[in-house]
Amino acid sequence: YYRTKLPSMDQPYTHNLSDIKVTSWNVRGLRKLIKLKQTLSRIKQLKSKIVFLQQTHLTDCELKSVRNRWPGQVIHASYNNYARGVIILVHRSIPFQLTKIIKDPAGRYVITQGTILSITLNLVSLYGPNENKPKFFEDLFLTVSALQGHNWRRL
After folding, report:
1. Is 122 known to sit in a ligand binding site?
2. Quick check: 58 and 81 in contact, CB under 8 A?
3. In the predicted model, what is the mean pLDDT of residues 86-94?
4. CATH architecture, range 17-148
5. Which H/E stretch holds residue 116?
6. Number of C-alpha atoms within 13 angstroms, CB side, residue 48?
7. Contacting residues for 81 by C-beta, under 8 A, at least 6 apart
8. Average pLDDT of 75-91?
9. pLDDT for the residue numbered 63
10. What single string gives the DSSP state of each residue in 48-103?
11. Is 136 helix (H, G, I), strand (E, B) or coil?
């Protein structure tokens, strides 16, 4: 079933994957409640359904404030309250069935695998190093390819 009119924020999603609004944003910290509220308000204005946030600077304990305010799934990798941290937000109107999560212990990425409308997807929120670190990206690509069942070294 496909609709031509976009659903409201809370209606179940019945569109093609290409109709899902996706946003990626380096928020440079969400520890202050006012900044978190402003960020989530802007995401709502944009009508984004899948959101990748980088540099959240939140600890595992502080993520409760995000979970209490975001209507849907909150998938994260934390480091400490001064650096890094990434989040994937999936709105409850998106029927994302999560099957696997891989978190970087250094809080630089979170990789998820799941399905939307019977299509398998990998969602990755990434905050890469700001210096030349080829090994980081090689390891990341190998992790994603292993999740997909590919071996990039053989290709």
Report:
1. no
2. yes
3. 97
4. 4-Layer Sandwich (3.60)
5. strand 109-116
6. 20
7. 31, 57, 58, 59, 62
8. 92
9. 94
10. -SEEEEE-----TGGGHHHHHHSSEEEEEE--BTTB--EEEEEETTS--EEEEEEE
11. helix
- Residue 41's pLDDT band, with cuts at 50, 70 and 90, is very high
Q: Say what the pLDDT of residue 6 is.
A: 41
Q: Is 155 exposed, middle or buried (0-12, 13-18, 19+ CB in 10 A)?
A: exposed
The larger pLDDT score, comparing residue 152 to residue 29, is at 29
Is-contact 88 112, C-beta < 8 A?
yes
Residue at 131: amino acid letter: E
Q: What is the pTM of this model?
A: 0.84
Q: Per-domain residue ranges for the chain?
A: 17-148
Between 18 and 57, the higher pLDDT residue: 57
Q: What does the angle CA 61 – CA 89 – CA 139 come to, to the nearest 5 degrees?
A: 85
